[in-house]
Design a protein that fits this description.
- It is a single chain.
- This protein has two domains: 2-37, no CATH class; 70-261, Exo-inulinase, domain 1 (Jelly Rolls), CATH 2.60.120.
- The protein starts with a helix and ends in a 5-residue tail after the last strand.
- By secondary structure, the chain is an alpha+beta fold.
- It contains three helices and 15 strands.
- Strands 1, 3, 4, 6, 9, 12, 13 and 15 form an eight-stranded antiparallel β-sheet that branches. Strands 2-5-14-7-8 form a five-stranded antiparallel β-sheet, with no helix packed on it.
Length: 266
């Protein structure tokens, strides 16, 4: 019985691969390679690297990133960032924060990243009475996939445009937005899309988001890049792309931005 099941599973997997499709289950099989390679409690199995976990932030003070993270803002300058054409990033640096300068455009990290864990803290400006898109901005993974930023205490925008929505695709599971002026936290785990040599999608982009410590996007598969009033299809892009912060006319602030690249099979 077991042999029959295993043969059927192997046939199904082979058929899937012949069709050029690699589902999440196959990716999980890659993660399980170590279970097949090592005996239980094998003392020769390599130990995980030692990483200092950093410190949590408070409203008054940004925390510290893990010791293996790339710190994307040191609280003093925008040396890790640039404009869309490679020019110096035109946003304002305040006392330990970055502030969006309206009408200057988005900013991008100079360094490109693949699969990653991203930590971003942000604060929307004081509410001015607008109820559609107050405090609008966004964090774009691989410069293409937006985790929405907005004041969801006051906003009456569509559900898939609320804070921590995968813009235009997935509303957050719950609304845990704090009031304007208070620091909010996004912790994101991102696995970028994979393409074959002909540009065909082998795996969609997959994202998990914790908003102020609460799970709001649970391993969701993106339909393609996020966009306003449309869902564009995937187009093959490099395996590593910049992180992007959006300028959307509001003086949103950012601090304590860091990223950890994840290895294959993570």
């Amino acid at each position: 019985m077991r042999s029959t099941f295993m043969k059927a599973s192997m046939i199904a997997m082979a058929a899937t691969l012949l069709l050029g499709i690699i589902p999440v289950e196959v990716s999980k099989c890659l993660q399980s390679e170590g279970l097949r390679r090592w005996q239980i409690h094998d003392m020769s199995r390599p130990q995980p690297p030692l990483v200092a976990p950093g410190e949590a932030s408070t409203q008054d003070k940004p925390g510290q990133p893990p010791s293996d993270a790339v710190e994307l803002f040191n609280g003093k300058d925008l040396s890790q960032w640039q404009g869309a054409k490679g020019e110096p990033a035109p946003w304002k640096v305040g006392n330990g924060y970055i502030e969006v300068v309206p009408k200057t455009g988005d900013i991008y990290t100079k360094q490109a990243f693949g699969d990653c864990q991203v930590h971003v803290e942000w604060a929307s400006p004081e509410w001015a009475g607008d109820t559609f898109d107050p405090g609008n901005s966004g964090v774009f993974l691989a410069a293409l996939y937006e985790v929405q930023i907005i004041d969801s205490v006051h906003s009456k925008i569509y559900a898939d445009g609320q804070a921590a929505a995968m813009y235009g695709q997935y509303p957050p599971l719950v609304n845990v937005c704090r009031a304007p002026g208070l620091w909010q936290t996004y912790d994101v785990v991102f696995h970028d899309a994979r393409f074959d040599k002909d540009g065909k999608v082998l795996r969609p982009a997959i994202i998990t988001v914790f908003f102020n410590g609460v799970l709001v996007q649970d391993h969701v598969e993106l339909t393609g890049p996020t966009a306003h009033h449309q869902r564009p299809p995937y187009q093959a892009h490099p395996a590593k792309m910049p992180l992007r912060l959006q300028e959307h006319n509001y003086k949103v602030r950012f601090r304590n931005i860091w990223i950890r690249e994840l290895g294959e099979g993570s």
